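Weekend entry, working from home. Most of the wet-lab plans are on hold until the incubator is repaired, so I used the time to fold the two sequences that have been sitting in the queue since the last round of cloning. Logging both here for the record. First:
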Amino acid sequence: MSSKAPIGVFDSGVGGLTVVKEIMHQIPGETIIYFGDTARLPYGSKSKETVTTYTRQIVRFLMAKDVKAIVIACNTASAFALETVKAEFDVPIIGVVKPGAAVAADTTKNGMIGVIGTEGTIRSGIYNEFLSLTNPQVKVYGKACPLFVPLVEEGLIDDPITMEMARRYIGELIEYDIDTLVLGCTHYPLLRKTIRKIVGDQIALVNPAYETAKSLKQVLVEHALENDEVLKSDHKFFVSDGAEKFKRFANSILPCEVVETKDVNIENY
């Protein structure tokens, strides 16, 4: 595998762009091929079997683009399908859960950690599992926030209804005296300002996207795949539906211009 090959990144929609943004910042010499499964989101309410099937299809698509590594920039897919596809495909594949859990365990002072995520992520208990392995003394309180993903996908980031839902979802966790809150879905960092207004300054917010980019860099070094030439990156973006809508959103948050986004019939993979 050439070190100049691109990195594949995927999510159920636009949320994985928070991971892409961190990769572009931390590893600027790398080229990214991104796929957003916008036709089939949200993943959080779907079964493990369905999410695993979707994940396999997307990994096959990215492998057809000759990627050198893959980032599952989706907490639900990381929880349900990461270990399966790691065993099935001959390319380094990382998720977003383990890096986020590690930094949360290091951040907490009182051992009380809140996790917000999709129904699938919270139901899987994967954050509890990783956090307990890192520090058996911590107590983890999970809360599913099923409306956050559709609100973000519809661009309602600063809308009063989003603030109201955040207050309902997160208010319960604050009562547990948490000092750390994991944004356990890659869509959620886009709601960081809203969430901060709810929790105040006393609760640390953990963004797994930042830690995932750091982990990716380590993986590339370990496999001798880090690009040793800083060239102009030719990033490519694909979705399963709504290419123009996705492109507008991507251009509002990424540090580079997304000139084109292409639709892909992911069912063919």
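Second, folded right after the first finished:
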Amino acid sequence: MSQSKQRMIAANKQFKKPVTKFEQLDLSRSDFVPKGMTRAYRNTRFTVMVYDNSPVSTGIAIRVMVQKHNDTPIVNHWSEMQNIKNEIFGEETTAIEYFPAKSQLIDDYNIYWFWIFPEGVLPIPNVGK
């Protein structure tokens, strides 16, 4: 059986369980850690990979990658991403999704990204005020 098929079977077993809180993974026990990744989390639905020191035009930001275990699109992705952001980074943390120019678009997988910038870097709208 292919590794991809085994992964799907394992993911489908996880999806039958209730959603759990995220647990931080021990990266020192992993065979493969992508370059720049500083921490990772996992629950019964998602893997979240964090790059704490990602260079951006204004300095450094936190880049966050989210992927479902079965590589399918995230249904209700906005509320799911909000819940993930709240649980891992805190309810009062502001994060943004980045929608690049078409010429810079990379959309090979069902992977979602959000960014957390240092306070004062992004203009924050006065929504609801």
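Plan for Monday: verify the second prediction. The chain has one domain: 3-116.
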